[in-house]
Amino acid sequence: MVDESVTVKGSPVRSLQKFIDAELSAEQREAVFRSLPPEFASRFRSPILATETVPLHMLNRFTEEAARAAGQPLDQFARRAGRSGAEDAIKGVYRFFAMVMTPAALIEKASKMWSGFYNRGTMQIAEQTDRSVTVRVTNFPAEPAGCARIGGWAERAIEMTGAKNVHSQHGSCIAKGGNCCEWKIVWS
Question: What is the pLDDT of residues 67-77, one digit of tens each?
Fold first, then answer.
């Protein structure tokens, strides 16, 4: 059962729209829009305002249908979409701040901003070392598309601090019966 009450703000939606526009041909994008409920196809065809909210499930469905239209595995497509979203979100003066922060400090900042983007769930750092951080999300209706986007976002955000060889591994997952979602992000 999908919880339609969980929403995401417009900024991550806009980043995904940009990624899909860059990755898919016009014909592929039309196939995506045809596969969505008409009211969301109409919304996703137009620019989304940063202050708007969209059901999280529809953002995940948008990601799934775009991966299908591109002929790519969902995990790979959504991870690249997440990386692109971090690139889109951390620009201008924020890029400078990212460059001077440690990876753990950047993730800590992101966890504090979570509730500004999602109306449910909590993100926190579960563990950290010199070369890794484990991020935990609780009270959130996880879906594979969203989990892959979050992992990709975390990887790229940490790379933007200057860390090298960044990789995330999604361990516990709510979508697979876990009581939380965890990503261990390691770097050198």
Answer: 999 999 999 99
User: Which pLDDT belongs to residue 100?
Assistant: 75
Report d(CA 115, CA 21) in Å as an integer.
27
| CA distance readout (Å), 75 to 40, 112, 144 | 22, 26, 7
Q: Cβ of 167: how many Cβ atoms within 10 Å?
A: 13
Q: In what order do the strands lie in the sheet with 181-186?
A: 122-128, 132-138, 181-186, 167-170
What does DSSP say about strands 7-9 and 181-186: parallel, antiparallel, or unpaired? unpaired
**Looking at the DSSP assignment, which residues form a beta bridge with residue 135?**
125, 183
Give the DSSP H/E element, type plus range, for residue 91: none
How far apart (Å, rounded) are the C-alpha atoms in residues 61 and 31?
Answer: 13
The answer to whether the CB of 102 falls within 8 A of the CB of 158 is no
**Interval 5-52: pLDDT, tens:** 999 999 999 999 999 999 999 999 999 999 999 999 999 999 999 899
Max alpha carbon distance in the chain (Å)?
48
Return the bridge partners of 118, or none.
8
